[in-house]
Amino acid sequence: MFAATLASALAVAGTSALAVRAFLRGKLEDRIPEAAARARERLELWFAQRALDVEIFSRSDILVDGLSRLHGGSRPRSAERGEVEQYLGYVRADLPIYSTIFVLDAAGNELARVGEALDLDAGQRLRLAGLREVDISGDLITGTGAHVQIVSAPIDSAREHAPATLHAAFPVAVLHQQLARAADEQGGRLLVFDAAGALVASSLDERAHPTLHPRIATARSGAVAEYSSFDGVRVVASALPFARLGWKIVFEGDYGSTFAPIAAILRRTVLLNLSIVLVLAGLAFAVARYLLRPLHELSAVAVRLRDGETNVRLPVESSEDEVGILTRSFGEMVDSLTRANEALEQLAITDDLTRIHNHRFFQDQLASAIRRSENTGAPLALALIDIDDFKALNDRHGHAAGDAVLAQIAQILAARARPQDVVARYGGEEFVVLAPDADLAGGIAVAETLRIAVHEQRFRIEGLADSVAVTISVGVAAFAGDRRRFFGDADRALYAAKHAGKDCVMAASEG
Of 72, 40, 63, 34, nearest to 160 (Cα)? Predict the structure, then answer.
């Protein structure tokens, strides 16, 4: 009987430890495809902004009128071309990511250009000249070996002459920078491959992955795969399609750091279980027959734990005999497991640096708020917040100072937001505030309150004699039935706030 009881206790400890391990691993593995999805969303918004840039400038009256005169005016063509190129120069100065901006006629001839000359072959030029809607190319290799992408849009020009197209080229290195920022936020590395499996860009300093790894190439979309990467590091990865360009986005997380929390919590769980097993074994030796009924109850609880139940409670036992001690001991184990699970859940939704909610928690709350808004018609506003000149602050005072400023600003936002608002760190130096029951005007009011609170604060940094001033720029949007547009409007409003001189709040207008 003693041996049977001891075996049963060991089984309870083992099954509960396995249940905890399976639960924790499942929770952590969910992070990998979520990270890939967030990176894809960020990249989609970035490319959408690039397409919007070129589409807007292609409709400019200055450009359309200049091209009309260039085709049929009485002034010298060099003068008309100079006016068009002067306007393109202003555009390029405002958007320095573009290395070249140029205009082609229907035959692929260059009508105007600012920036570096692109050595494109005749076929590439004709394909670009033939576009009749906004388009973004894949990775193009010029005659000089440079890797570029080109954003194109037809020009709404006068009907009396042949159509023309506007094109803005940026080096693929810009895409490397976008991936690096997204990878830093997610704690891993990002790679983009074309339809043939060749590397387009990565968050690394160079094009280190020659081709897509076979394990991830054959895995279904969003599945998690484990393999050794090109540099010999064991990783867990997930891939998602990037439909706009027919690419595939791969997020790779270091295997050791990803699953380190499991090992730490599992060690504590095993030690706790072993301690309880020793207590149970000693009690079972003296009162084996008396423990038959409680053991059945305990075994039932263990089975429920093994099956993944977390909200498990034992009947309260107040007696001081062996049955009471055993029941309370096992209850303490269950409570300890519950607290461990709750601690992990809290860890999963809290940003380590700022101690406010993280991106994952915000996405969950956003989905709930959108459903509520759609069901009840209640207004919903969103504010995207970016710290002004944060890179300069890091460069001047160091990353430790930047971290201190991030933490202090997070506490200001959490303290000055309304009780019903959701404040979270969106990534890097960006924060986000979700404001339920607030229309666009209400969202602006919330954002302005937060901006003023930061503007009036002087930030103390360890090691600096004087405090520093920090400001924020805020973009506000109201939900109008489309989640993607909701974020896009807020992002464009933030972009406008930056270009309006920073330390201000800008709101997305209709259209």
Answer: 72
Q: DSSP states of 257-289 as a string?
A: HHHHHHHHHHHHHHHHHHHHHHHHHHHHHHHTT
> Which tens digit of pLDDT belongs to each residue from 88-100?
998 889 889 999 9
Segments of 116-257 assigned E as strands: 135-136, 140-141, 147-154, 164-171, 189-193, 199-202, 224-228, 234-242, 247-254
What is the band of 117 on the pLDDT scale with cuts at 50, 70, 90?
confident
What is the reported pTM? 0.48
Query: Dihedrals φ, ψ of 110, to 5°?
Result: -80, 120
- Between the CA of residue 128 and those of 66, 137, 194, 330, what are the distances in Å? 21, 9, 20, 72
CA distance 229 to 251: 12
Give the closest residue to 507 by CA, choosing from 433, 455, 459, 445: 445
User: Dmax over Cα atoms in the chain, in whole Å?
Assistant: 112
Q: Bridge-partner residues for 198, per DSSP? A: 211
Phi, psi of 167, deg, nearest 5: -135, 135
Whether 393 and 467 have beta carbons less than 8 Å apart is answered as no
